[in-house]
């Protein structure tokens, strides 16, 4: 059995009681190394398998082979159903391949953490993710819909600046971007920028970043 557990946006206290119970009762713990390291759980008699992008395929095969005979907790940043659909599709396919039961435990996503910080309801924004391999969404069709955007940029140091450049090219240069890095972590950083100014910046940002975009009249 494999449990895919949403462990929240950063603060370890935001994980659910159910998730903690499953982790404690699992014999194998896996997930991205940075996510596993956030938690001080009892590692006695547990096998820890940190994932990395270079060996992702091989390590996931190992994890699912073990899940045929053991309970496995897969720790996933935020919520498994928010901005992680490519990985979740892989896990579902592997569960079928290995004939392993899979269960998804929801968590608090960075989307919800950012909305709480901003004091905005989810129904008032359009959410877009750039955490994908291959083509991304066409921003233009969303910029003209009358709602502000909440965007997870590509997880690279230049991801936010690249987003600002794209926004400026599509007529949102006078708009604003509220860049929220590492929300709910002790060292979270939130800063507001003008799109056209950030597009010319060389600033680097964390891979744990979410951006609120308001283009106003988009002139």
TrEMBL record:
Location of the Tetrapyrrole methylase domain: 1-198
Annotated keywords: Cobalamin biosynthesis, Membrane, Methyltransferase, S-adenosyl-L-methionine, Transferase, Transmembrane, Transmembrane helix
Pfam families hit by this protein: TP_methylase
InterPro entries in UniProt: 4pyrrol_Mease, 4pyrrol_Methylase_sf, 4pyrrole_Mease_sub1, 4pyrrole_Mease_sub2, CbiE, Cobalamin_biosynth_MTase
One MF annotation (Gene Ontology) recorded for this entry: protein methyltransferase activity
Family annotation (Gene3D superfamilies): Cobalt-precorrin-4 Transmethylase, Domain 1, Methyltransferase, Cobalt-precorrin-4 Transmethylase, Domain 2
CDD domains reported for this sequence: Precorrin-6Y-MT
Gene Ontology biological process terms, A to Z: cobalamin biosynthetic process; methylation; protein histidyl modification to diphthamide
Pathway(s) per entry: Cofactor biosynthesis; adenosylcobalamin biosynthesis
The keyword 4Fe-4S is assigned to this record: no
Membrane-traversing stretches: 98-120
NCBIfam families per record: CbiE, PRK05787.1-3
Protein name stated in the entry: Cobalt-precorrin-7 (C(5))-methyltransferase
Gene source species: Acidianus sulfidivorans JP7
């Amino acid at each position: 059995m494999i449990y895919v557990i949403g462990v929240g946006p950063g603060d370890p206290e935001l994980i659910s009681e159910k998730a903690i119970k499953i982790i404690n009762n699992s014999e194998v713990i896996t997930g991205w190394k940075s996510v596993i390291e956030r938690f001080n759980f009892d590692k006695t008699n547990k096998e820890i398998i940190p994932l990395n992008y270079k060996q992702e395929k091989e390590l996931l095969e190992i994890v699912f082979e073990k899940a045929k005979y053991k309970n496995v907790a897969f720790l996933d940043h935020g919520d498994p159903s928010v901005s992680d659909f490519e990985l979740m599709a892989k896990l579902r396919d592997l569960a079928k391949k290995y004939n392993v039961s899979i269960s998804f435990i929801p968590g608090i996503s960075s989307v919800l953490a950012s909305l709480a910080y901003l004091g905005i309801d989810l129904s008032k924004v359009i959410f877009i993710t750039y955490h994908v391999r291959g083509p991304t969404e066409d921003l233009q069709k969303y910029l003209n819909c009358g709602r502000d955007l909440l965007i997870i940029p590509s997880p690279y140091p230049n991801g936010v600046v690249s987003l600002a450049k794209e926004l400026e090219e599509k007529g949102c240069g006078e708009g604003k971007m509220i860049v929220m890095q590492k929300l709910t972590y002790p060292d979270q950083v939130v800063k507001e920028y003008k799109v056209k100014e950030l597009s010319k910046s060389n600033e680097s940002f964390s891979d744990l970043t979410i951006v609120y975009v308001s283009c106003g009249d988009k002139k």
